């Protein structure tokens, strides 16, 4: 790989504010992640609206049923077509969704490029799976994207939804104090971020690299690029192969 970053445009054009609706049978799991830190700041500034909907609002009976046994037998309940279809259709009648996303272990693995792409959208609808999953007809006829946050299984899609929303929301302009910060995160440009340091300059004899205190911004940028390349080659050589 070439030892310099590609000279490519680093501009992002956003549709703002963004709205993300989430369908869940356990909306309580999503209260804390969106009420603190960066996601709270994004909402307080009016840059992002996050609305979590209790799927049982569209239940098939007065008992709040949204799941049933799977055809063909086997362990685990399946989320039914009717509640999901009614919820998606009702919410879609209020706004047009750029993507309807199902969080599932067998979806496309989330990465920074996917987050970048989603951050350009205006309205997203996320479906949190639960139990054994959702009736596949919903996936066939409503879902436009299927996303996984890794090769493992969670109890439900709520935590995955929180990860996806955070990855998207922090990219919106005005959310971070330094709007250029997100452009230099790990995985942007297929590189891991370089090491970072702060005060004190000398801690227990462990010293900050002198180049970072030189004031020579060109040399500092060159050092950071070199460190990013070395770190990526050592820890994630697969990322370099994707270039």
Describe this structure in words.
- The chain is of the alpha/beta class and 243 residues long.
- The protein folds into two domains: 18-169, 3-Layer(aba) Sandwich (Alpha/beta knot), CATH 3.40.1280.10; 186-241, Orthogonal Bundle (Trp Operon Repressor, Chain A).
- Helix content is 29%, strand content 19%.
- The protein contains seven helices and nine strands.
- The strands form three sheets. A five-stranded parallel sheet has the order 2-1-6-5-7, sandwiched between helices.
- A hairpin with a 7-residue loop joins strand 3 (67-69) and strand 4 (77-79).
- The radius of gyration is 22 Å and the shape is elongated.
Brief account:
The protein is elongated, with a radius of gyration of 22 Å. The chain has 243 residues and is α/β, with parallel strands linked by helices. It has helices at 37-44, 81-94, 112-118, 136-141, 158-169, 217-235, 237-241, and strands at residues 18-24, 48-54, 67-69, 77-79, 99-109, 123-128, 145-148, 202-203, 206-207.
Shape: elongated
Please give the CATH class of the largest domain: Alpha Beta
CATH superfamily of the largest domain, please?
A: SPOUT methyltransferase, trefoil knot domain
Number of DSSP E strands: 9
CATH topology of the largest domain: the name is Alpha/beta knot
Beta-strand proportion: 15-25%
Distance from first to last alpha carbon: 8 Å
Order of helices and strands: EHEEEHEHEHEHEEHH
Average pLDDT: 90
Tally of contiguous helical segments: 7
Helical fraction equals 25-40%
Structurally, the number of domains stands at 2
* Low-pLDDT runs: 1-15
Per CATH, the architecture of the largest domain is 3-Layer(aba) Sandwich
The main pleated sheet reads as: 5 strands, parallel
Spatially, the strands of the biggest sheet line up as: 2-1-6-5-7
The value of Rg in angstroms is 22 Å
């Amino acid at each position: 790989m070439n030892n310099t970053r590609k000279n490519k445009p680093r501009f992002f054009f956003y549709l703002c504010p963004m709205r993300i609706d989430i369908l869940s049978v356990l909306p309580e799991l999503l209260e804390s992640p969106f009420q603190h830190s960066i996601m709270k700041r994004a909402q307080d500034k009016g840059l992002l609206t996050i609305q979590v909907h209790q799927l049982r609002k569209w239940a098939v009976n007065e008992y709040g049923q949204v799941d049933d046994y799977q055809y063909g037998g086997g362990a685990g309940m399946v989320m039914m077509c009717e509640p999901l279809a009614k919820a998606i259709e009702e919410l879609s009648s209020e706004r047009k969704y750029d993507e309807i996303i199902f969080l599932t272990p067998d979806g496309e693995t989330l990465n920074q490029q996917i987050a970048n792409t989603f951050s350009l959208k205006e309205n997203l609808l996320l479906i949190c799976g639960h139990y054994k999953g959702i009736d596949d007809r919903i996936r066939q006829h409503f879902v436009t994207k299927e996303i996984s946050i890794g090769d493992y299984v969670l109890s439900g899609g709520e935590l995955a939804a929180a990860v996806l929303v955070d990855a998207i929301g922090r990219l919106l302009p005005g959310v971070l104090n330094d709007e250029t910060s997100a452009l230099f995160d790990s995985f942007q440009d297929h590189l891991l971020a370089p090491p970072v340091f702060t005060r004190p300059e000398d801690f227990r004899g462990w010293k900050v690299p002198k180049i970072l205190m030189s004031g020579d911004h060109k040399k500092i940028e060159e050092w950071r690029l070199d460190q990013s390349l070395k770190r990526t080659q050592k820890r994630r050589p697969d990322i370099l192969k994707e270039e």
